[in-house]
Design brief:
Shape: globular
Order of helices and strands: EEEEHEHEEHEEHHEE
Structural class: alpha+beta
Radius of gyration: 18 Å
Number of domains: 2
Number of helices: 5
Strand content: 25-35%
Helix content: 10-25%
Distance between the termini: 55 Å
Strand order of the largest sheet: 4-3-2-1-5
Length: 178
């Protein structure tokens, strides 16, 4: 089966553009969307959501065309919000994952929900990639293998940021720094 397939959305209200970059022996493709979501599905399900494009593009070239930057962590990218992607693909944002769960209707953030962060490039990333982005953006002082939202805002963690629902993590004012 072909791999490295560009996928153009048939209905942007349902799903964005994507890239199928892996095919397993069960006939299931691994797909990454423009927004950074990962999913697995058979070819018939792909055909229902996307117009299947060419196979000349590599995964790295697709990521480069999508981000406009040779690495997934460009200097202008930073962590904006803690985020949870529910199993129905709704994305919830907040100061921390606990905050998101508390503010959500009971049972909506359950098994199958993905916890991560939303970046300034509107990408959903896990806490490992978020650690790299936050360090490069100088949001955290030392490199880590994984980051949790508390590293950005908690006094205990010497966090440098306050949280604003509209703007995400914003640098603390002089009188409010740890």
């Amino acid at each position: 089966m072909k791999c490295n397939i560009t996928l153009q959305t048939k209905d942007g209200r349902e799903v964005g553009n994507a890239f199928a970059y892996k095919f397993n022996h069960d006939g299931v493709y691994l797909i990454e969307t423009d927004f950074g979501h990962f999913m697995k599905m058979p070819r018939a399900a792909m055909d229902a959501l996307w117009w299947v494009g060419d196979t000349a593009t590599t995964y790295d070239a697709w990521k480069l065309s999508r981000t406009g930057d040779k690495s997934s962590t460009g200097q202008d990218e930073r962590i904006m919000h803690a985020a949870i992607v529910r199993s129905d693909n709704h994305i919830l944002l907040g100061k921390s994952h606990a905050d998101i769960i508390i503010r959500s209707p009971y049972g909506t953030c359950k098994e199958g929900s993905l916890k991560g962060f939303l970046t300034s490039k509107c990408r959903f990333v896990d806490n490992r990639e978020a650690a790299t982005i936050a360090f490069v953006a100088k949001q955290i002082p030392t490199p880590r293998t994984a980051v949790f939202s508390e590293a950005l805002w908690s006094k205990k963690e010497n966090g440098l940021y306050d949280y604003d629902a509209a703007h995400g993590y914003v640098l603390k004012t002089e009188g409010n720094k740890p």
